[in-house]
Amino acid sequence: MKRCTLVMADAGPFNSLWVAGRLDLLLALDMRVVVVDAVYDELTSDPVYLKDREVKAFIDNNRPPFLIEPTDIGQMEREKRARGGKLKRNAGELAMVDFMTSDNGLPSYTAAGDPVAILFEDAGIRVINKPPNLHLLSTIGMLYGLERVGIIPSAEDIVREMTHPTLPGRKLSDARKFTDLPEGIDDPAAIGSSWTPGS
User: Fold this and answer.
1) Could you say which DSSP state residue 98 is in?
2) Among 10, 53, 112, 139, which is most buried by a count of CB atoms within 10 Å?
3) Please, what are the domains in the chain?
4) What is the C-alpha to C-alpha distance for residues 40 and 60, in angstroms, rounded to an integer?
5) Residues 157-198: pLDDT tens digits?
6) In angstroms, rounded to a whole number, what is the distance separating the alpha carbons of residues 183 and 178?
7) pLDDT in tens, 65-98
């Protein structure tokens, strides 16, 4: 089976896994991980903030498998930032729409028929005309899947750490809120989405 490409649809999965101290799980998947530029910028824009510094170091030190995909929205926002202009609050979401609809974005990954998974937390993610090789997965759904295949002993322990952080540098304001509890969203592709460690 061909390796799946994982597309990060928003900053939420990075933020949640950072709160739990488990960014390493993105590497355990052994997949190419695509992050759109505006989401990367959103995640890493404030070097004073511990989360931004640690997520930036994690992504930058793991290329590959991480790949930053350019978008028109991301480029416009970077130019605006350079001029000192006000940035859009939803630039990451707009860039993801740009990526999902432009010919050199998501369609270029799914056109070959290779398996692609979108990892997300924003409840509003919608995929029009979902290709048969596209798998939709929430962070919670991913954790329960990793538990099923033996990568982690307990998804519930990680979810608890995400919602009630205890690690140094994490505050109650970092706690994550999920709309997909208790089991998450795991909407498999019609073809080519089966995965086990080492496959």
Assistant:
1) H
2) 139
3) 5-187 (3.40.50)
4) 10
5) 999 999 999 999 999 899 999 988 898 988 888 886 666 676
6) 11
7) 999 999 888 888 888 888 887 767 778 778 877 8
**CB-based burial label for 169 (10 Å; 0-12, 13-18, 19+):** middle
Q: Where are the beta strands (DSSP E) in 87-166?
A: 116-120, 134-138
Amino acid 171: pLDDT? 92
Q: What is the residue-averaged pLDDT of the chain?
A: 87
Q: What is the pLDDT of residues 124-137, one digit of tens each?
A: 566 667 788 888 89
Task: Note the pLDDT of residue 1.
Answer: 43
Structure tokens at 32: 């190419």
Q: Report which DSSP code applies to 33.
A: E
Q: What is the DSSP string of 10-30?
A: SSHHHHHHHHTT-TTHHHHT-
Strands of 134-138's sheet, edge to edge?
Answer: 66-69, 32-36, 5-8, 116-120, 134-138, 186-187
Between CA 2 and CA 159 the distance in angstroms is: 30
Could you give the CA distance from residue 114 to residue 82 in angstroms, rounded to a whole number? 37
Alpha-carbon gap, residue 99 to 33, rounded angstroms: 14
Question: For 120, what's the count of Cα atoms within 13 Å in the CB-facing half-sphere?
Answer: 21
